[in-house]
Amino acid sequence: MLAELISENQPCVALTGAGVSTESGIPDFRSPSGIWAEYDPYEVASIDGFRRDPARVWEFYARRLDVLAGAQPNPAHHALAQLEERGMVRAVITQNVDGLHASAGSRDVIEVHGSIATASCTACGRREERERIRELLPLPRCVDCGTVLKPDVVMFGELLPSSAIDRASDLARNAALLLVVGSSLEVWPVAGLPEETLARGGCLAIVNREPTPYDLRAALVLHGSAGGILEQCVRTMTSSS
Fold first, then answer.
1. At what angle do helices 75-85 and 226-240 cross, to 10 degrees?
2. Which of 78, 101, 113, 223 is catalytic?
3. What average pLDDT does this structure show over 63-78?
4. Residue 113 annotated in active site
5. Domain shared by 168 and 49, yes or no
6. What is the pLDDT of residues 196-216, one digit of tens each?
């Protein structure tokens, strides 16, 4: 059913959330276990928290970087990359900051919440890559001006990058199908993207372990493993082609 829906409703755009990353062993901040259980998200993942205690924030991000160092793309990431390769997915809009979509081979990825792969100086703008950041821990400072670097993720209290959210909105408005994978559709403004698709006559397909606010308005809702469902979708398309 999902394979048929994607094939018959083009262009299709994917919107992914934490439920994709968790299948690679990266904990969601809502998870009751993992590193998020040891920290208050509003203390270590808010811009106010960063300004108040950047050392505490970097203590947390050092552990996130350790988790990401061993993380690999899972079948959901690979399936979306294969769907893009087949011309069945135009682009991937992601709320995730781990870079695993690109690692799996997706070429057009819009990271609306930024990326943990880099950190920037808020004073002079110098940017450092992940490996250099790890060398500068425990409190990475700009080598040019000495200011503490900030992870290039969108923290609570910050606006999303305008270029990313504008592109995401444009893709959602022009999608015949918005394929939502692993997102609770509760974090704004990304949670409003399905509304833009529906308002222009497009339809929704939702793949998520838990219900979402848009389930009753979706053409298809599948509860279960993102990797398993998308892998089967690609197999179905391959066998019918």
1. 30
2. 113
3. 92
4. yes
5. no
6. 999 999 999 999 999 999 999
